[in-house]
From TrEMBL:
InterPro entries given in the database record: Azurin, BlueCu_1, BlueCu_1_BS, Cu-binding_ET, Cu_oxidase_CS, Cupredoxin
Keyword Nucleotide-binding: no
Keyword terms: Copper, Electron transport, Metal-binding, Signal, Transport
GO-annotated molecular function: copper ion binding; electron transfer activity
Residue stretches of biased makeup (Low complexity): 27-53
Matching SUPFAM superfamilies: Cupredoxins
Blue (type 1) copper domain sequence ranges: 58-179
Full protein name: Blue (Type 1) copper domain protein
């Protein structure tokens, strides 16, 4: 009998805890909701700024010459804010990273071949600028850059890559998939 009372007490206690916990997270959600509401309001009030913020996508690059994300899915025309973060330690001159989004159907090999010799423009060749939709700066260790743009209106797969010499060849690439 004692045991039953005890387990009941434990259950009751747990229930109270749960309720308490639930209440807390509810009020937490509510207060953050309240905080978000005015922000949303002001964003719609200044509609010109809305596309500039967009959905945030963060990609990390490191000394293994890989992007942490190799596929980004987006809706046609969706506002995106892509951040590249170089979390590596190797100096920029030997291990710089950038994020270059190419136009649909761009000749990637041709672009990469030109990029190799475009150190002066951070490996984004001026002669192939017409193949590029958007690109970040070339980043050294612990540097970050963000580019904001709208996903293309035409559905399909758009290659992105790091144009630092040799990086694309070892797999520093991915695709923006527009649906
Ligand atoms: Cu790279």
């Amino acid at each position: 009998m004692k045991n039953i009372v005890r387990s009941f007490a434990v259950t009751l206690c747990a229930a109270v805890l749960l309720a308490g916990c639930g209440k807390k997270s509810d009020s937490g959600a509510q207060s953050s909701g309240d905080a978000a509401a005015p922000a949303g309001k002001s964003a719609s009030a200044t509609s010109a700024e809305t596309p500039a913020s967009g959905r945030s996508v963060e990609i990390k690059a490191d000394d293994t010459m890989k992007f942490s994300l190799t596929e980004i899915r987006a809706k046609r025309g969706e506002a995106l804010s892509v951040t590249l973060r170089n979390v590596g330690n190797t100096p920029k001159f030997s291990m710089g990273h950038n994020w270059v989004l190419l136009k649909k159907g761009a000749n990637v090999d041709e672009f990469i071949n030109e990029a190799m010799n475009a150190a002066a423009t951070d490996y984004v060749p001026a002669s192939k600028q017409d193949m590029v939709l958007r690109h970040t700066k070339l980043l050294g260790p612990k540097e970050v850059d963000t580019v904001t743009f709208n996903a293309p209106a035409e559905p399909g797969r758009y290659v992105f890559l790091c144009s630092f010499p040799g990086h694309y060849q070892v797999g520093m690439k991915g695709e923006l998939v527009v649906e």
